[in-house]
Amino acid sequence: MKALLRWETALVFVLLVIALSAGSGFRSSQNLFYLGLDIGEIALIALPLTIVVVAGEIDLSVASVLGLSSALIGVLWQANWPLEAILPVVIVVGALCGALNGFLVTTLGLPSLAVTIGTLALYRGLALVLLGDTAVADFPPSYTSFGTQPVPGTGIPWPMLLFALLAVVFGVLLHASSYGRAVFAIGANAEAARFAGIRVRQVKFLAFTLAGAVAALAGIVYTLRFSSARADNGAGLELAVVAAVLLGGVSIFGGRGTLFGVIAGVLVLGALRNVLILNDVPTEVLTIVTGLLLLVSVLAPIRGRQDP
């Protein structure tokens, strides 16, 4: 725990250094607003993925669930469904995608890395079958403003307010509930947790289901933010989400991590990407930086694992 606290403190320090050294353009209210929009989907998906990773598993299909959700929104909207009916259906479908991952991992005993690489392709393929390479973009402004306008009277984007509310919920779930204690116990030693009476399969199954549901919610946010439903929305986003979670100090081996650290990791990753964008750095370099952060972030949990 001390190692985690030191890592989280370092992340906060890094964030302060970035904010102070990046220039006034970075600290402007307009840029901070767009920074909040840019990290909205990453921040949302990172919340349940933290639980999955702490439990000793991984879910690489989250960005594909986002894309499938976006495609489903477009198809149902073209079928003249009202958005009030579309949105809950999309979240349920996302939860079912996560439940399928959970079933394959917990009931059939398949490794989550292999399973979610497979469903990454499966869900993205289903999105392409549903919508093809077309885009649906005629959504009502009353909905798309959710992804582009601040909360009235503030400079906070609506998606970040949604993230803050869910962060409280997931923080309580992970750090102040019997479910959270079970997650940490399973991640530390699944066999010992099973002998202690913890329902390992049910705990992991719920974690995957939550990841699918929130990924679908992120798909809704993404679609409304760009006012465009596309099958390729969010492609590659899983790299940034996993990087943020591991950068936040969550051990890739499971059993260690805090939601506060993940939130700090999301902010650091978002701030670095924003600074690079402000300096007209090509997209390819952004991908390289994200990959390097992913590699570097693995070292902290390994080091923490070696601490007495």
From TrEMBL:
It comes from the Bacteria. It is found in: Cell membrane. The chain crosses the membrane at residues 35-55, 85-106, 113-136, 156-174, 205-224, 236-253, 285-302. Pfam families: BPD_transp_2. The keyword DNA-binding does not apply. GO terms for cellular component: plasma membrane. It is a multi-pass membrane protein. InterPro entries: ABC_transp_permease. One of its GO terms (molecular function) is transmembrane transporter activity. Its main location: membrane. Keywords: Cell inner membrane, Cell membrane, Membrane, Transmembrane, Transmembrane helix, Transport. This is Autoinducer 2 import system permease protein LsrD. It comes from Crossiella cryophila. The lineage of its organism: Bacteria, Bacillati, Actinomycetota, Actinomycetes, Pseudonocardiales.
